[in-house]
Write a structure and sequence with these properties.
5-stranded parallel β-sheet; alpha/beta; binds 5-O-phosphono-beta-D-ribofuranose; globular
Length: 172
């Protein structure tokens, strides 16, 4: 769901990051929270990054989810250019399995914070949920959607596990 005037911006350093970042988009879709998704590379399209980050707040965005891999400068540079909260998602890299991405995003200098999430899909999902929580502070509809999502998640956890040989269940 991409709409004009939305409050959440999802940006990523490459088209190849979409395989991870689409999980943030899917999560926002499930919450009914509109977002925009853009490819904005700190290294390959630095002017696009400047334009996006400098204009984000005035365009009505309230939080930015930024995913990148390898030498992942996108979340940090975005945080340096906008007062909006920036949620960084380390994309799993081929060379170092995303450890490079994680350390690049999490090790920001004091004074320029980036909220950093887990590597890969879990991080993308949690960044979306965190973005919803940021919006929920002042948006009752987002708060209700988040509460419903949590209730559904809890309800989906079975209290027992099936056993292989007997087919009986064992209480956890
Ligand atoms: C980073 O380099 C991107 O965020 C991506 O994770 C990584 C590889 O990009 P591609 O070579 O697949 O375009 O800037």
């Amino acid at each position: 769901m991409t709409e004009p005037g939305c409050a959440v911006g999802i940006i990523m350093g490459s088209q190849s990051d979409w395989e991870t970042m689409r999980h943030a988009a899917d999560t926002l879709d499930r919450l009914g929270i509109p977002y925009e998704a853009r490819i904005v590379s700190a290294h390959r399209t630095p002017e696009r990054l400047y334009d996006y980050a400098r204009g984000a707040q005035s365009r009505g965005l309230r939080v930015i989810i930024a995913g990148a891999g390898g030498a992942a400068h996108l979340p940090g540079m975005t945080a340096a250019l906008t007062p909006l909260p920036v949620l960084g998602v380390p994309v799993e890299s081929r060379a170092l399995n995303g450890l490079d991405s994680l350390l690049s995003i999490v090790q920001m200098p004091g004074g320029v914070p980036v909220a950093t999430f887990a590597i890969g899909r879990a991080g993308a999902v949690n960044a979306a949920l965190f973005a919803a929580a940021v919006l929920a502070v002042g948006d009752p509809a987002a708060a209700r959607a988040l509460a419903a999502w949590r209730e559904a998640q809890t309800a989906a956890v079975a209290p027992t596990v099936p056993t292989g040989s007997t087919g009986q269940s064992v209480a956890t």
